[in-house]
Specification:
125 residues, mainly beta, 7-stranded mixed sheet, 4-stranded antiparallel sheet, 11 strands, 50% strand, globular
Length: 125
């Protein structure tokens, strides 16, 4: 029933920007937290950012703090990840996720109930 669809990935030069979108459908609870994770080749999936649907609380991985911004549009039921000052090490598949009873402190993948299929972000040097 629940579907998360990411978009906005692509190829960008180092220092450039991309805006990822995650359109959610089938979510009926206001307690959902939305998060972004990423997985680079040969590495485990890692937490990037999270935002609460019930308030404006956000959380970021230290590696992206100050460069990435997570936000949401409740009208469109969409969460965004604005990525600025991109670095080659940001190259990864980015996944959108939803946690039924999570919070912005939910940084472990197992805490999330629904996942999108991912969108590729490649930063060239």
């Amino acid at each position: 029933q629940v579907q998360l669809v990411e978009s906005g990935g692509g190829l960008v030069q180092a220092g450039g920007s991309l805006r990822l979108s995650c359109a959610a459908s089938g979510l009926t609870f206001s307690t959902y937290a939305m998060g972004w994770f990423r997985q680079a080749p040969g590495k485990e999936r890692e937490f990037v950012a999270a935002v609460s649907w019930s308030d404006t609380n956000t959380n970021y991985a230290q590696s992206v703090l100050g460069r990435f911004t997570i936000s949401r549009d409740r009208t469109k039921n969409t969460v965004y990840l604005q990525m600025n000052s991109l670095k080659p090490e940001d190259t990864a598949v980015y996944y959108c996720a939803a946690a039924k009873y999570g919070s912005v402190r939910s940084i472990v993948g197992d805490e999330y109930d629904y996942w999108g299929q991912g969108t590729q972000v490649t930063v060239s040097s």
